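Dear colleagues,

As part of the handover before I leave the project, I'm documenting each prediction I ran so the next person doesn't have to rerun anything. This entry is a single chain, and its sequence is reproduced below.
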Amino acid sequence: MAFPGRDKLAVILLSGGLDSMVAAGLAQEQGFRLAALTIDYGQRHRRELESARAIAAMLGTERHQILSLDLSTFGGSALTSDTPVPKEGVGADIPVTYVPARNIVFLSLTLAWAEALDARDIFIGVNALDYSGYPDCRPVFITQFEVMANMGTKAGAEGERFQIHAPLQHMRKSQIAAEALRLQLDPAKSWSCYDPQADGRPCGLCDSCRLRREGFAQIGHADPLDYATNL
């Protein structure tokens, strides 16, 4: 699909979660047209793919590409194997839900598609405050990936510049929830749970459920998701 011009085209890495939804909404607010990339990587919470489709439709993205890349072949994470998802609360150590090099791989694919589309802006919904301590969510990683993007691409070699936008980087989850409401995005369309229950509800106990629900509680707004367990 050809896009007319590239000055206002951005590619958003759209997981289907609250954070990527808000990042996409902020990109639109800045005047960008959107192409969305979702990675089906064999994750146990594949329910988020349904949310990614709903969010892409809600935002009116010009193109939504779902790319299959089965990282369950590698394993190494509770999200791509049968390893139990922790339910004890957010800890200090990097949890077993870390997927090896996930954002390195995903941003590399997003970069490749952006270059093919002649787009130079990439949005990702990483957060470095209320999160599970993943190293590929830190500002230093985003900064260094942008350097690499401009060193290792034809566009970069020809003097054009890619910019990696991470607008949620320094927000608390409560601020992200508030941004969703301000942007008039429907949080019910997003999915955050790492361990969906047999009845289709989010578990309510994994790190992602806890952080999301607490974020909405801190702004006095009920999370519209129906959790299997309410703390």
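The two ends are 46 Å apart (CA to CA). Residues 128 and 138 are 5 Å apart (CA to CA).

All the best with the project,
I.
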